[in-house]
Write a structure and sequence with these properties.
By secondary structure, the protein is mainly β. It has no helices and 77 strands.
């Protein structure tokens, strides 16, 4: 989007722009040259200075066609735009279009080497010599199929052409087709990183290893990729066909490891996807369409990585024990090392839920049955099993005794040191357990109550004959229970409550009710909150969020072993480990992205321009230098004059500002059963239009006039649709009644209607010039023009 200031020369009817500025760029490709960040912006090419955060626009250049690609080399840029290749040079702070080359068809991809430029179009692959970088010379066109993407490994070129193979060519000493590589589905894009070939279809990306045409498929990820950028070795940043940016380690292609995941902010535009990623130094940049350029600080993002995730299906629960963790699933139990190496699996004939564990032991349940496993044997064997009277909801293990809360909200125990452990019900007077947690030998039980409170009972030891310490918190627990020493955590509608049983003091973490926690867990002085998309790390001492990590998929459960820095998570598609001592080493998006503005209205005064996007009013000088912004709550319309800025909000509040956006005063329209419609500025007065009485079936529209201090002076019938002011006269369109009016505004705080007439059709705008009133209607036949009127609103032409 571009805002232009227009100069009009009445004598010759010439209209010429005085200045313009760009507020929207659809960033679809990126390339880096030192501190210059080049972007293909759909309408052309732009260069940003990446020595600052976020990168600052230096220069832009329109290019004919839709510009989708930019490649850099030999001191120039090559932009693929529609059917042309544009050759562009940066000179100081400006861009110069050297020439365009007709590619004969839309440019789908470009591959640049030192002396050659390969261009993929629907007509095949065209080779240009760039021995003279500013003047690409056509050499030959080979492979006449439509090609969508190109990649190179050494002197070998790989081409995707939409079928179930990738075409392979030798580029040296002469262009020669070597054959094809079979792919499991139609290949739409290829990329090459660190000697591996990545082939994307509409639904997945396959990894091929080998050389030349002798490539074999070694693994895949279940999404299509649009771009890749190196981190180190086979660790790559990857963009896909949505707003997601990922980091994945492909060192072992058969089991790719998720390292990072984030989604760029959604925009108000139509292009909401990441089409390219590039890395340079300690920054990663994402071409995020109408969200602009997303910038990430990757200064600390290096091996060993904070998060590692691997695919694993049907997991439902997880327990961490030392250097391993265990996942309950629909077909038994699976063991993993903390490095995500799969180990043993067992008990495959039933669905298991892993509940708790200790060195050498794992406690699991399946329906109403419970088993304690010894982990020291080659294949884990049961120490003992027992069956309760109904389904086990959750359980903890102290020594070899299990304590279980059942689905009927009763508490039971089972001593697995006995040959045949018999379930024993534990009496908890006045407490109906809904969940249980332990810390060492201490136990906490939560009771969700009918009076909309949650009672938490704390037992310092598993001696349930002793009276517990009990604390009640407002609201029903939504998260289960977490316990560390004598401190419990539970979430209700108020947020996450921290309960100190030593003092019986309850505190609520600030703003901790934003999301419903799936689970809570303690790790040292940190409280871990599992949300629908992330793991949130709270510092219990400062009561602030110290880190938040977006997970590769929706999480199901988490567990961290005592005195361990490894947090283990099972998700809907896999397992994840997070090194809690390295949570601050993840990529961090720079807080102020180089985004776009989608303005809906522009108003201007003698020295200012105000741009309104429906929520925020951005203030610029008349040379389009940014001054500041105001964001009145619920604002629906804005108006401005030489004396300042006015806004009208949905709560019927009128607000006045200085020209630079400093608050002056506010006023509230007190009419009952009313809604705000619009606001206009007339010679220093604010005219606010409202509609009232519609719920009773008798809609009335009127306009309320305010003076500079926002005192109401008079009202007029009808709401203003549009108004044009010329000296002491205003020419207005109103609704209910639908009229065109001439108004005396010599005293703008007490306007007087001089003349009026019924509007012809639905008139939406009005203008006045040299004694003639011009109006515009919403829809008209081409044979009938909108009427014009004299200054006294006598019709003069149609």
């Amino acid at each position: 989007m571009t805002l232009a200031a227009i100069a009009v020369f009445a004598a010759t009817c010439n209209i010429a722009p005085v200045l313009s500025d760009q507020f929207r760029s659809s960033i679809v490709d990126l390339a880096v040259d030192g501190n210059d960040l080049w972007a293909a912006t759909s309408y052309g090419v732009a260069v940003y200075d990446r020595s600052v955060d976020p990168p600052r626009l230096v220069a832009s250049l329109p290019v004919p066609g839709t510009t989708r690609l930019v490649r850099l080399g030999n001191g120039v840029a090559y932009a693929g735009s529609g059917n042309t290749i544009a050759v562009i040079r940066k000179s100081g702070r400006s861009l110069q279009l050297l020439r365009t080359v007709d590619a004969g068809a839309p440019v789908n991809d470009m591959l640049l080497t030192t002396l050659s430029l390969y261009v993929a179009t629907r007509n095949g692959i065209t080779l240009y010599s760039v021995a003279d970088p500013s003047n690409p010379a056509l050499l030959t066109t080979f492979f006449s199929n439509a090609v969508t993407s190109l990649a190179t490994i050494g002197s070998t070129i790989y081409a995707a052409d939409g079928d179930t193979s990738v075409e392979v060519f030798s580029a040296s000493p002469v262009i020669q087709r070597l054959g094809g590589i079979a792919t499991p589905s139609n290949a739409v894009a290829v990329d090459a990183q660190n000697g591996k070939l990545y082939v994307s279809s509409a639904v997945d990306t396959s990894v091929f290893v080998g050389s030349g045409v002798a490539m074999s498929r070694a693994g895949s990820v279940p999404f299509s990729t649009t771009s890749m950028a190196p981190i180190a070795g086979d660790a790559l940043f990857v963009s896909s066909t949505d707003r997601t940016v990922r980091a994945i380690d492909f060192s072992t292609p058969g089991t790719p490891i998720d390292l990072f995941r984030d989604e760029v902010p959604i925009s108000n535009g139509t292009i909401n996807r990441v089409s390219a990623v590039v890395t340079a130094g300690n920054r990663m940049y994402a071409a995020a369409g109408d969200s602009g350029i997303a910038t990430y600080d990757i200064s600390n993002f290096s091996s060993p990585f904070t998060m590692r995730g691997a695919a694993f299906a049907n997991g439902s629960s997880i327990v961490s024990i030392g250097s391993n963790f265990y996942v309950g699933r629909a077909t038994g139990i699976a063991e993993f090392s903390q490095s995500l190496v799969p180990a043993r699996t067992w008990d495959g004939s039933r669905a298991d839920v892993v509940q708790d564990g200790a060195t050498g032991f794992l406690l699991s349940s399946s329906g109403a049955s419970m088993t304690l496993w010894t982990l020291t044997s080659t294949i884990p064997q049961p120490v003992g099993s027992t069956t309760f009277r109904t389904t086990v909801a959750n359980a903890v293990l102290i020594g070899t005794t299990a304590y279980a809360v059942l689905a009927d909200r009763t508490l039971w125990s089972a001593d697995f040191s006995q040959t045949a452990p018999a379930p024993q019900q534990i009496t908890t007077p006045g407490i109906n357990p809904s969940s249980i947690a332990r810390s060492g030998n201490s136990i906490a039980i939560a009771d969700i109550r009918s009076d909309a409170t949650t009672l938490v009972a704390f037992y310092a030891t598993p001696d349930f004959s002793a009276a517990p310490v009990t604390v009640s918190v407002a609201g029903l627990a939504t998260s289960g229970l977490a316990l560390a020493n004598a401190t419990a955590a539970v979430q209700t509608f108020r947020g996450i409550s921290l309960i100190d049983f030593n003092t019986q003091i309850v505190g609520v973490l600030p703003q901790s009710n934003v999301d419903i926690a799936r689970q809570l867990a303690f790790s040292g002085t940190s409280l871990l909150e599992l949300t629908d998309t992330s793991i949130r790390v709270w510092n219990v001492l400062t009561q602030k969020i110290s880190a938040e990590i977006t997970l590769p998929a929706q999480p199901i459960a988490m567990n961290v072993a005592p005195q361990s820095n490894a947090l283990d998570i099972v998700t809907s598609t896999g397992v994840v480990t997070i090194a809690l001592d390295r949570v601050l080493r993840m990529p961090v998006e720079i807080a102020a992205p180089n985004g776009n503005a989608f303005y809906k209205k522009v108003v201007a005064s003698a020295g200012h321009v105000y741009l309104f996007d429906g929520r925020t009013i951005d203030i610029y000088s008349n040379t389009l230098q940014y001054i500041g912004s105001v964001r009145p709550p619920g604002v629906i319309d804005v108006a401005a004059g030489d004396n300042g800025l006015f806004s009208l909000s949905g709560n019927m509040t009128v607000t006045a500002y200085t020209p630079d956006g400093i608050l002056r005063s506010t006023a509230t329209i007190t009419d009952s059963d009313a809604q705000a419609v619009s606001i206009n500025a007339v010679n220093g007065a604010a005219w606010a239009s409202i509609v009232r009485g519609c719920t009773s079936g008798a809609c009335e529209k009127k306009t309320i006039v305010f003076d500079r201090s926002l005192n109401q002076t008079v009202t007029m019938t009808g709401s203003l649709t549009d108004i044009a002011v010329n000296g002491n006269r205003a020419y207005a369109i109103t609704d209910l009644p639908a009229e065109i009016r001439v108004i005396d505004v010599s005293d703008p705080f007490h306007p007087a209607t001089i003349n009026s007439r019924a509007a012809e059709g639905t008139v939406i705008s009005i203008a006045y010039s040299n004694g003639t009133i011009r109006s515009r209607r919403t829809a008209r036949r081409t044979s009938r023009r909108s009427p014009t009127y004299s200054a006294h609103i006598h019709r003069t032409a149609r």
